[in-house]
Design goal:
Structural class of chain A: mainly alpha
Oligomer: homodimer
Helix content of chain A: 40-55%
Number of strands of chain A: 2
Bound molecules: FE2/S2 (inorganic) cluster
Distance between the termini of chain A: 20 Å
Strand content of chain A: 5-15%
CATH class of chain A: Mainly Alpha
Radius of gyration of chain A: 18 Å
Shape of chain A: globular
Number of helices of chain A: 6
Number of domains of chain A: 1
CATH architecture of chain A: Orthogonal Bundle
Chain lengths: 149, 149
DNA sequence: ATAATTCCTATTATTATAGTAGTATTTATT
DNA sequence: AATAAATACTACTATAATAATAGGAATTAT
């Protein structure tokens, strides 16, 4: 039940973009540097977020990444689901064909509920929430240090 | 966020033992056969459940496995936590030293809540619940077939 | 004594994750 | 038009975790 680093990297990068929202494109190199993530790997991690339309990329010189909608509109669920795929703890929750006796299985209902409550929780948090919370923590801790997550 | 087969095998085996509760020891071979799990692998999977005291094993001829407490007293959390270890989606939730800026991290709180709601859900279901539900499903489906999960 | 069982340890195989590398394409700037 | 700086794309490699297999030691009812 561990979250993949892919999901964590994507979340961290998206928070960077949320901080940068409205300020033009931010380069991959910069995101990777600030978050201490391999550039090439981050590139692959972010790719599906682009195809799903959460981020907009501008190619060429002075290009970069930016959110393609307001931070309020992007939830943690959107991000994690996009890079991790389904949040079902077992395959048959999404695809009944994956197990051979789904009609009589007692745990499937449990896994299904589990999936739902996780989704619900992740949907309840958007990037704007995280930015606000980040600012609050920064102020509270008196630290002006670059954040890292 | 996939559940390991280890966790699923353990759950299935424990449900078998719950069905067999009060009827003496049940052999590993029998559990493995009914659930179509490799004997040798299941042996390893069940081992920690014994050391944690959820199951009692009798060695030697006519030996076998049995629950060491009533099915009501064993929750899915007990089983899964025992074989999978912590349910924290990221390491720093259990061990603040795992990340370097836990004081200022905004997602850590999210992961922590996620862990808690999953635990709460898994704790709410015990083996007796599953046995009852299994019987109900069997009756409802009119099927007398050996169950499989 | 024997047969049937769990206990223990080591090894291997398989899969998924994480990371690296190199080239192609696009675009702002000069 | 040339150049430099960026993303896009594809392929490969390394690492780690999971799943499975194997064989013998210890125990116990018969
Ligand atoms: S039917 Fe898939 S876990 Fe039971
Ligand atoms: S401190 Fe561990 S995820 Fe942020």
């Amino acid at each position: 039940m561990q979250l993949s680093t892919k999901a964590r990297y994507a979340t961290r990068a998206m928070i960077e973009l949320a901080f940068n929202y409205g300020k033009g494109p931010m380069q991959l190199k910069e995101i990777a540097r600030r978050q201490d993530i391999s550039e090439k790997y981050l590139e692959q991690v972010l790719f599906p977020l682009r195809t799903k339309g959460y981020i907009y990329t501008q190619k060429g010189s002075r290009g970069g990444y930016s959110l393609s909608m307001a931070p309020e509109e992007i939830t943690l669920y959107d991000i994690i689901q996009t890079v991790e795929g389904s949040l079902a703890p077992v395959a048959c929750v999404d695809n009944a064909g994956a197990c051979n006796r789904v009609d009589i299985c007692v745990t499937r209902d449990v896994w299904s509920r589990l999936k739902n409550i996780v989704i619900q929780e992740l949907k309840s948090i958007n990037l704007a929430d995280l930015v606000v919370e980040q600012e609050r923590k920064k102020k509270e801790s008196g630290s002006n240090i670059m954040y890292q997550i």
